Every structure is written in structure tokens, then in C-alpha cells.
Target: Dipeptidase
Amino acid sequence: MSLRRLPLLLALALSIPLSAHAIEFSADELQRAKALQQRLLTLDSHLDTPANFGRDGFDIDNRHDHNALSQVDYPRMVEGALDGGFWAIYTGQGDRSPAAHLRDRDAGLQRLLEIRTMLAANRERFALALTPADAVRIKADGKRVVFISMENASPLVADPSLLSFYHQAGLRMLSTVHFANNEFADSATNPKGPEWDGLSDAGKALVREAVRLGIVIDQSHASDAVFDDLVEMMPVPFVLSHSSAKAVHDHPRNLDDARLRRLAKAGGVIQVNAYGGYLVDPGKSEARKQAEEALSKRLGGWGKMDIAQGVELQRGEEELDRQFPVRHASLDDFFAHMGHILDVVGPEHVGIGLDWDGGGGLTDLRDVSELPKITAWLLRRGYDDKQIAGIWGGNLLRVMQQAQAHADKQGT
Model:
């Protein structure tokens, strides 16, 4: 999930873009794209949907259209031919006091419980995956794939040994940090700048333990110095689960071309993000920011809304777009980032992590039901089925296989 929660969810692209141009696909292109996705294993590396699992009124088996709180549910996954992906245990960065560390610990465990509870309640539609082979089998069984990831390692600060428990419970991807620095690493967006000049000693120890267990390391949200540390110390490739291209939009959350090439040389993969503020500069006024905060307060705050209030939230966002126009990112903007990255590192090192239910979404890609538009663009660009299969999950699973094979070889 990106910068986070309601004020940032309000930046979702939910109105007509200021630009008159928008990419279009024919019905035949979309039909071909969807048919291809239905044959391939189609995974998104960053789903923040578990944030909805404890929300009153949310049912993953029911469709929640036109709802600013929900972009992913089973019916829309079927429509968009999304087989699943990595479902995130996200914990917001606290004030780093001992009490906050304990709250983070408990919040992470609660989110893990919510994911496992959803799986137990929906055994006919979803299944937990621990290995790449599991994902292939789950798709063949006609179910949706649930890998578990952790975004922000703050739940581990109070007790790093919990990583082993999380691994036993299904964790297969780990990021060290989020919007602000923590005890493990520097964030790309910490307001006061770096604290550790990369990974702290505790962060390096956490990464080494994750590698020992076969957990994939995710660099998204971490600073460039953390990236450099990972390249130096990692015996296996790592990924960026939801990031974009700094050459297209100079934002600290995005990766520059030199590091993109280093990532590819190390065998890693960047999963391209669809969070609008990382794709373009929205040009948001102070009045707009204040109006967003007022809307959030009126509805009780992101974490306390029930799913029905998401409809009211969307109407409020659309009204704000009329009163305080901003630039919303579109598929054109997303494809500018994705196309640039593909040109720099090639299709073997690119994937898709759109930040659904965590701030992702575009004016013309509002939820997972519209994912065949991405495949149609890849086909239009000339990529073959094997390359598209890599982009839609194969490249990421190759990194996972390497991480797990390394752990097995070391005797984990």
C-alpha cells in the first residue's frame, strides 16, 4: 500500500482525466487478451485487499462495484481473469515507541489471522500457495491463488523471531519499510531523510534470516541506499513488488535506469505500480488536501468505515474532482512507465503490482475487472505468449523458486 489510507486513497483516479486522450482497445483485442490470461497464470504482486477483510459488510464473494474502498473481489477477479497474487499484511508506521512496536506486532498478527480466516471460509474459491508449484496447481483446480506478503516489517521490531512463525503461517515475501524510516531500514519517502544510510544492522540481520527461510525480499518503499545494500548482500535475486520508473516521473519511490539495470543483472524483477501519485504529478492544491481531510473526517476515517460507506466516499471524491480538479493518472501514464522499464531491462525482469485497494487504480483501469487492457497492450506491443506469461507472474515465481532453492540448499 502506498503513502496511505484515506487522504491518499482520495487521490485515486476516479474522474475524467484532464487530458482528452485515452488509449482504447477494440472488443476483439480485449477478448483475445482475456482468453490469453485465462490460459496463463495471472498474478498481481501487491494486493492490499486484506485491509478489507475485517471491514463490516465486506464479503470477497460479492461484487462491490463503484466503491472507493474496494477494487478486488472474487467476481471481478473472474471477470478480469486475475488468478490471484500476493495478499499483503500491511501495518502503518507508528511513532516507534515501545508501545507502538507492540501495537504493530499485534496489528500484523491480526491481519495474518484475517487472511487465514478468509481462506478457511472460502475453500472452494481460494487456496494458500507456498511455492510456485502450488500456484500452478491451485489454478488448475479452478481456485484463486493466495500468497502472503508483508509490507513494512515494523510488526517484527518488538520480536524479530516472529519471522519464523510468519513463514510457517505462509509468509513468502517481505519488505523492510514503508513511508517512514523504521528500525530496519530507511524509507524512500521519510520526511527527515535517511537514518541508517540503507539497512540498519538489525535490517541486515532480518534480510539474512528471510533469505535463510526462502522468503523473497521486496525493495519497494525502501531508499535507493537500501537497494544498493541488497544488491551487495543478497545471494539470490530480489523484487520491487510495486514501483515505477524515475526517468518517467522523478519520484523517490521510483527506480532510476542505472538501478533498473543492476536489478536485472542480479536476476531481479520490478513489478510496475499503478498508484497515480507515483506515475504523474497530480498538482494537488492545499484547498483540495483540506477538502479530502474533511471528507475523511466526516465519514469516520478510512479504518472505521464499513463497506457501504465506500459508495458515499466515491461520490464525495467525484464531487471533489469537480470542485478542485487535479491530474489523474491514466493507462497512458502507466504504459509510459511500463514501456520505459521494458525497454531498459526487457520482459524477463518486469511484472505487475498495481497496488489494488491501497491507492492504485487509473481513470481507465479502476479495478481488477479491467486487467485485460494491460494484456491487450502487451500483445499490441508485440510480446509473445511466453513473454506475457513471464510479466503476468512467471518472472516473479522464478525469483521465488530461486529463493526457495537457495534456502533448501543451505538446509533450512
User: Anything to note?
Assistant: The chain is about 45% helix and 10% strand. The chain has one domain: 5-410. The first helix runs from residue 5 to 9.
